Structures are given as C-alpha cells and as structure tokens.
Amino acid sequence: MVNARGLARRAFVQLRAPLRFRLDFFTSVFGNVIVMAVGGTLLGTMFQHIPSLAGWTGWEVLFLWSWLETVVALAHFSCAGLFVLNRRYLVDGEMDRILLRPGDPLLGILVDNIAGQELPGVAVAVAVMSVAAWKLSIGWAALMIVPGVLGSLGVFASILVAFASLGFHVKHTGTAVGTVFQAASYARYPFELYPRAVRYLLVIGLLGFLAYIPAATVLGRLTLGWVHLPVSFAAMAAAYGFFRFGLERYSSSGT
Prior knowledge:
Blueprint: H1 2-16, H2 22-46, H3 58-78, H4 85-91, H5 95-100, H6 105-112, H7 119-136, H8 145-165, H9 177-183, H10 196-204, H11 212-218, H12 228-247
Helix pairs in contact: 2-3, 2-7, 3-7, 3-8, 8-12
C-alpha cells in the first residue's frame, strides 16, 4: 500500500513536471495536434478523389488510423522510459537507483518517465476516433473500443519492452525502440493493401494487433477479435519475462 502511494506521488510529480516549462509544454502540444491534423487532412483529401481504399470507406480508414494514433500517443505517454533505458539506466548507471527503491523496477522506470505533454495528443486521437465511430453508426460494438485500445496498448508496450530489454545484452547509447514506432506505421492502413506474405508477417510480428485486427472486428470485418486480449496478455507476460531475464544479468556501472 505504501509503495502504491509512492508510485502515485511520483506519477503525479511527473505529470506536473512539463508545466514548469510552459512554453516547451505548449509547443509540444501544438506539434502533436498539428501532426494529427495533417494526417487527418491527407486522408480526407485522398478520399475526395477515390470512393474506397481496398474496400474500406473513408470513415473506416479514419477509424483505423485514429485507433493506431491513440495507441501510439498512449505509448508515448506511458512508455517514454523505454526510450532512455539503455543510455540513462544501463550505461549511465541509474538502474542502481531504481533497484534500491521498493517495488518493481520496470514499473518504476515507466512511472519516473511519464510524459504528460503527450496527453493532448491522446485526447485529439480519441476525439477523431469518436467522430469516425459516430459516423459509422457502429452501435453496441462501440463497447469493444476501450478494452480493444487497452489490449492494443498492451501489445505495443510488450514489443517496446522486448526491444528496450536488448540493452541488457548489447550495451549501447542508442535505442531500438524508435524502430518499433517506424514499423508501426504499417498498421495505420487496411492490411488488404499489402501482399499476403506481408500480412502474415505483420500478424506474426504482432503489428496486426495494434489496430487492424481489433478495429476491423469492431467494424464487423473480422471475427478474430476474441484472440486480441489473450494475445495482449501473453505478449505482456513474455516481454516482462524477457526484461527480468536481462535484469538478472545486469551489472552495476559503478557510477
């Protein structure tokens, strides 16, 4: 209970931290909103010239696109610590401080690096997805959106944790996490656009569970939705096990 209160206080401090530098905070917020607006505008412009994309209407593609944008924004908010795991914690030695604190080290790293400036991006993505869902009149299937997005976040976080944990075995000052965000770009659009072999690779690599499978299920295009949450839980367990495996081989930098 004490540890839970301590984590909550640390999270609250991290959420307030960006407001100390308000110009940087609002610049970041403005940048996030602009990026989202540009993406939505490009989709809108494209569908002014074509009736559908691989059989998907404009609102369906916007729903899929905003689903992934919501997941990515949530990942930036909650998993920012994974970007600096190699350099800050493993190379510079801050993992020693984390290990001296009570509680789980991975949770401590995530809490200490919560990026509050990403929340406006989450709000914009959710707003766009809500509008698309309303236009599509998806009805009771809308109840699947929240658990679906959380399941997608679990899959995405698992991939990020797995890639970040490679730093325990290969010490370097960079990060492989950025590669995951680049690869996630393939999940923004209907998989029907890709060759069959690429679709299989995207599903096997779990990228299909970031947006396409849950969103297509909500839209009634797939019936695979039941595997989404089990895959998410399995991925999180495997990623956490890989992190603990690396942590057992961690040696202090002595700094």
